[in-house]
């Protein structure tokens, strides 16, 4: 799932996602005081725009130039509160201790033996900041070996909770029903959610 894959995916439709913020983000972040946020795999920008309108300064990162161009065009009214950034965070980590919120919503983060990419995201959370990681419940995902896709190859919240040390407090680690209809062509009925606060 490289740049070409995602650019082709976005080009396949005029709009791939609804434009609404993810339900997990809304339910978990609505009461947090705004600060600096990192939106990992921002897509067409629904989450980043929602955060910006609530007072956050957002760095919105995606590997797809097509997605970022769409997001920027749809967010012309938010007055520079979002920096749309093309990068591959699995290979180039974000700045350390720079964000009050690191939001990872349905981002396909592949497991690595050294957890290198994951540690890059964890290190980006500032002391006192929040990591929010949400993905589809494994029970709703089907392997596609012909495409080289096995959902078990990707991090789930439990995996990440197991990597956290005593410098973190886990606030939420659960499976819950989705608050929005499943994306077209899928049967996702539940989300798995991890919310953790960095203590130091």
Low-pLDDT segments, ≥5 res: none
Shape: globular
Portion in beta strands: 25-35%
Please tell me the overall pLDDT. 88
Structure description:
- The chain is of the alpha/beta class and 200 residues long.
- Helix content is 24%, strand content 27%.
- It is built from 6 helices and 7 strands, in the order ααβαβαββαβαββ.
- The protein has helices at residues 3-11, 23-29, 46-53, 65-74, 116-123, 157-163; strands spanning 36-40, 57-62, 82-86, 99-105, 125-136, 168-177, 190-198.
- It has a 7-stranded mixed sheet with strand order 3-2-1-4-5-7-6, sandwiched between helices.
- Helix 3 links the parallel strand 1 (36-40) and strand 2 (57-62).
- It is globular, with a radius of gyration of 16 Å.
- The mean pLDDT is 88.
Quick structural overview:
Helices cover 24% and strands 27% of the residues. With 200 residues, it is of the alpha/beta class.
Set down the secondary structure blueprint.
Elements: H1 3-11, H2 23-29, E1 36-40, H3 46-53, E2 57-62, H4 65-74, E3 82-86, E4 99-105, H5 116-123, E5 125-136, H6 157-163, E6 168-177, E7 190-198
Parallel strand pairs: 1-2, 1-4, 2-3, 4-5
Antiparallel strand pairs: 5-7, 6-7
Task: Spell out the key features of this protein.
200 residues; alpha/beta; seven-stranded mixed β-sheet; 6 helices; 24% helix
């Amino acid at each position: 799932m490289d740049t070409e894959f995602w650019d082709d995916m976005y080009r396949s439709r005029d709009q791939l996602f609804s434009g609404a913020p993810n339900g997990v983000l809304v339910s978990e972040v609505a009461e947090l005081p705004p600060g600096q946020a990192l939106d990992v795999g921002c897509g067409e920008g629904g989450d980043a725009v929602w955060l910006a309108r609530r007072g956050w300064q957002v760095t919105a990162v995606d590997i797809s130039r097509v997605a970022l161009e769409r997001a920027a065009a749809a967010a012309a009214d938010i007055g520079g509160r979002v920096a749309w950034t093309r990068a591959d965070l699995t290979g180039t980590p974000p700045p350390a201790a720079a964000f009050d919120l690191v939001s990872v919503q349905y981002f396909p983060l592949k497991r690595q033996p050294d957890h290198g990419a994951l540690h890059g995201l964890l290190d980006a959370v500032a002391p006192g900041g929040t990591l929010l990681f949400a993905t589809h419940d494994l029970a709703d995902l089907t392997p596609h070996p012909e495409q080289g896709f096995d959902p078990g190859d990707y991090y789930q919240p439990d995996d990440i909770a197991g990597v956290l040390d005593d410098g973190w407090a886990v606030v939420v680690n659960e499976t819950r029903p989705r608050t929005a209809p499943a994306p077209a062509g899928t049967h996702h009925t539940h989300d798995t959610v991890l919310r953790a606060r960095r203590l130091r």
